[in-house]
Amino acid sequence: AETAQFAAAGSSKAWAFYDASIDPHRPERLSLMGELREAITQGHLELYYQPKLTLATRHLEGVEALVRWNHPQRGLISPDVFIAMAEDTGNIQHLTRWVLGAAVTQASRWHEQGLNLSMAVNLSAHDLSDVDLPRYLADLTDLHRLPHALLTLEITERAVIGEFESALRVLQQLGEHGFQIAIDDFGVGQSSLSYLHRLPVDELKIDQSFVKHLIDDVDDRVIVRSIVELSHNLGYKVTAEGVEDEGTLHYLSSIACDHAQGFFVARPMQARALHDFVATQIDS
Ligand code: C2E
Ligand code: CA
Ligand code: CA
Ligand code: CA
């Protein structure tokens, strides 16, 4: 029997009921894995888009693409579950390329419609050992006539730490093509700043764990303020993730944080819902 719970392991994700019965250590994981390839070809994967706000102007800067698996029997499966599976079983390249294809197609559609939105896509550690990725992305974006600067690639500190030199080469090439590079979940990784500064970074995204309770927690405020200052001193833009209330948004504005993302701004949504969101932005 399936036990749909309100949240995936650890973090509360109030926007959807995930199937929490998928234990990564159980055999059914293998059958699910076999299904993932099929899911991609059968169109059971879908991208949701979470808006990112520019705090100074309150304008929509762009969106982050977040993948969902609409499983015919199990319902919505969290990327936290199947991304890790895809990594472990060598299917991540296939998945990443599907995500990139869908995200770039959507971004170029919005671009044609005159919406000037950036598109951010999450990469996993394995993607940074894919030496063909920069060429692949350049061809893909050119085919869809998407300006390279509108595409941001989000990577975690963890993703570069293992094979630093080869990841560095891939990131340098992505940077040379004019794609933007963001460090995701900043602050919870273990990389040193000297390593980080060798990467062609454009943006730091402050992990939600520091943002969530900053209104009640003076330590979190000190950390967030310090990361904003550090980012600006290094010439990076900075985004706060996990903004869940107005007070937090207000505080972030007051410390000159560049961008904000979180349920208070908007939840991840389907492409057609984003049009309505943009319309309400313009009205207000
Ligand atoms: P992430 O990149 O850090 O994405 C942010 C996650 O936090 C998303 O969960 C989003 O729905 C959730 N979130 C956003 N705002 C709030 C908020 O205010 N409060 C709370 N509690 N949560 C918020 P999601 O979509 O379940 O994705 C989980 C992770 O899965 C992502 O974390 C990312 O690491 C990974 N992921 C998602 N899509 C992809 C993808 O296409 N490729 C790869 N490689 N990884 C992906
Ligand atoms: Ca991300
Ligand atoms: Ca750059
Ligand atoms: Ca994040």
Automatic annotation (TrEMBL):
Domain of life: Bacteria
Residue span(s) of domain EAL: 29-282
Protein name per UniProt: EAL domain-containing protein
Residues of the full protein shown: 495 to 778 of 781
